[in-house]
């Protein structure tokens, strides 16, 4: 479970859910959170910090590097990871920093690689090298954030090609998530204003999953083994 951007750093509901059902979570936190608070979060099942730059419009490499520098040293050795939600440009430019971090890195939502960009693009190749070298995970999730119309056959084919390219680079560094409840920001509304959720049928998620992860061995690796290792499930 990950914190949605719409809740910012207000996460009390999620903490209650974790205490009740003993799950795992990556959360959004204020920069001045205390070590004692981090320890309490760890006890409730938190295993990751989400750095959300895309929703706030911070899309340059310097912003990514600053955010990572704040947290990497604090989280090293604690079994946590950093989940980065940022534009492809920002991720590609920050790749040297990402490769040096002492904590695992998860790149959210296909690393925000637009499906219309060819896989040969230098930025994409740089991101795929991070995966191939084991320096980053990529989460296969929220196809609607990288494809204008995921139900379009041509875009669905490009999505599948992108997902399979990521998995082929390093099957141990791919993750999957539903992105439920499919938050949205409707045109003209501020981040603080309420937008309607996207209507994403479960059948589409199931079809995407089987298109992206075509065999049972790969599905077990991505859906079971990788998250178990990353989140520390016993």
How would the blueprint of this fold be written?
Layout: H1 12-21, E1 25-27, H2 35-44, E2 46-52, H3 61-75, E3 81-85, H4 88-93, H5 95-100, E4 105-107, H6 122-132, E5 137-140, H7 153-169, E6 174-176, H8 202-212, H9 216-231
Parallel strand pairs: 1-2, 2-3, 3-4, 4-5, 5-6
Domain Amidohydrolase-related: 24-233
Organism: Bordetella holmesii CDC-H585-BH
GO molecular function: hydrolase activity
What is the CATH domain class? Alpha Beta
Termini separation (Å)? 17 Å
Q: Count of helical segments? A: 9
Secondary structure: helix percent:
40-55%
Strand percentage? 5-15%
- Extract low-pLDDT stretches: 5-10
What do you see in this structure?
With 234 residues, the chain is α/β, with parallel strands linked by helices. It has one domain (23-179, 195-231): Metal-dependent hydrolases (TIM Barrel). It contains nine helices and six strands; from the N terminus they run H-E-H-E-H-E-H-H-E-H-E-H-E-H-H. The chain has helices at residues 12-21, 35-44, 61-75, 88-93, 95-100, 122-132, 153-169, 202-212, 216-231, and strands at 25-27, 46-52, 81-85, 105-107, 137-140, 174-176. It has a six-stranded parallel sheet with strand order 1-2-3-4-5-6. Helix 2 links the parallel strand 1 and strand 2. Residues 5-10 have low confidence and may be disordered. Keywords: Hydrolase. It comes from Bordetella holmesii CDC-H585-BH. One of its GO terms (molecular function) is hydrolase activity. This is Amidohydrolase family protein.
């Amino acid at each position: 479970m990950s914190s949605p951007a719409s809740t910012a750093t207000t996460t009390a509901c999620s903490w209650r859910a974790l205490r009740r059902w003993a799950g795992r979570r990556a959360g959004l936190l204020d920069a001045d959170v205390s070590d004692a608070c981090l320890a309490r979060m760890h006890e409730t099942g938190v295993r990751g910090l989400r750095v959300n730059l895309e929703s706030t419009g911070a899309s340059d490499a310097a912003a990514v590097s600053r955010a990572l520098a704040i947290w990497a040293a604090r989280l090293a050795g604690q079994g946590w990871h950093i989940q980065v939600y940022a534009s492809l440009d920002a991720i590609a430019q920050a790749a040297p920093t990402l490769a040096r971090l002492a904590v695992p890195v998860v790149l959210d939502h296909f690393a925000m690689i637009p499906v219309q960009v060819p896989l040969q693009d230098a930025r994409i190749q740089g991101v795929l090298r991070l995966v191939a070298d084991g320096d980053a995970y990529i989460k296969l999730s929220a196809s609607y954030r990288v494809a204008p119309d995921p139900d379009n056959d041509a875009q669905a084919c490009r999505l599948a090609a992108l997902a399979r390219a990521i998995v082929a680079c390093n099957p141990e560094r791919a993750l999957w998530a539903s992105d439920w409840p499919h938050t949205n920001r409707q045109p003209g509304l501020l981040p603080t204003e309420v937008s309607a959720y996207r209507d994403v049928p479960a059948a589409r998620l199931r079809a995407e999953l089987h298109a992206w992860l075509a065999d049972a061995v790969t599905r077990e690796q991505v859906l079971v083994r990788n998250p178990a290792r990353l989140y520390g499930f016993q």
